Amino acid sequence: MKKLMTIVAFAVLAFTFAMASATAEETAKVFKFYCSQCHGLEGKGDGPNVTKDFPVSPRNFTNAKEMDKLSDADLKNVIMDGGPAVSKSPMMPPWGKTLTDADVDGLVKHLRTLCKCKGKQG
Amino acid sequence: MKNILTVALSVVFLASATSSSSADPAAGKTVFGAKGCADCHYTDGPAKEKTIDDQLAKKGPELWYAGSKFQKAWLAKWLTDPKPIRPQKFNSLTEENPADHPKLAGADAGSVTDYLMSLTSADVASGKVKPKNNPKGRQIFTKKMPCSGCHQYTGRKKNIVGGRSGPSLVEAGVRLNPDWILAYLQKPKVFKPVKMMPVFVGLLSDKDMTNVARYVANFKPKKK
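Structure tokens for the assembled complex are given below, as produced in the milestone run.
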């Protein structure tokens, strides 16, 4: 009986890990596909769209000091509704009609791994 | 004498151009297969892409609605002399467009044009979008929305400005059917279920979309 429990526990654990890593992998793909064109493959704000006549620099996600000023809710808000929703440039597109809620939650976590910061709390 | 020759030559050229454009779609379909075009382009709709991986696996844009998307005269010319449309290499953020698209000779280009123009989509209404440089459309394209962040177009000083991740819209009015531009904005799922461009349905009204489509469709070569 104990053995069975252990097996079940392991199976559940393995399953959860598989799910979690698949999501992180999926999120990395979403980031690369939609966000890198402006924010760059590593999130440094240097994607191929950022030529000399690009009006504002896309946020460098590896800049912990700037990223720390924003809470997770702020991040979600700007990703869903675009720059103007937070009095920023309209060059930051609204993605709310393109991405799912889960995609955006995943992206917020992904940005936190890029900045290695927790962001404004509360 | 030289003048007469030039005139005679242009007449011959024009005649051959018109005769090749009266070729039939069936012949074009055969050429399309024989020249390997189908290796990189699919021509049977509806859209097949469901995931990001599906989109990235493609070697070239889908052509199943080419007849609704392109202007015939542009297509016939482009197939004989393909100039880059996307500034970046297809599906790449790091490499430039290598400008190495296969070329077709005149007669083949004519029949392939007829074939591609026969591939239409019922989701494109006709006669809705009249190209016009309208201030509302310009405002959306250059200020209100990030269109210019991803698409090149001709700026005020006749210089090329704008982003590089989307197809260039420089002279898009010569290349694209104005009505298709509107349909593309209104029905993203029909033409491009998975793409790097945001969905604007629900963000731009039908009126806004029409205005911006009219503005893009008015991108034509500037008279010197």
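The mean pLDDT of chain B is 92. Residues 2-21 of chain B form the longest helix (20 residues). Further analysis is deferred to the final report.
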